[in-house]
Amino acid sequence: SSKKCRHCGKINHELKLHMRKWKCPNCNKINHRDINASINILNEGIRIISSE
Ligand SMILES: [Zn+2]
Prior knowledge:
Elements: E1 21-23, E2 30-32, H1 33-50
Antiparallel strand pairs: 1-2
The protein binds zinc ion.
Zinc ion binds next to loops.
């Protein structure tokens, strides 16, 4: 989930594991790996809750 851009939702398959932050090739915004992963997990949780 850390490969997913939190700005536009694009998945960056070229992202390396050691990269702590990366620039999205789609929207050109900077994603911080750890923060990004947390937000994606949070969004996933919200989606699960709201679908019940
Ligand atoms: Zn993006």
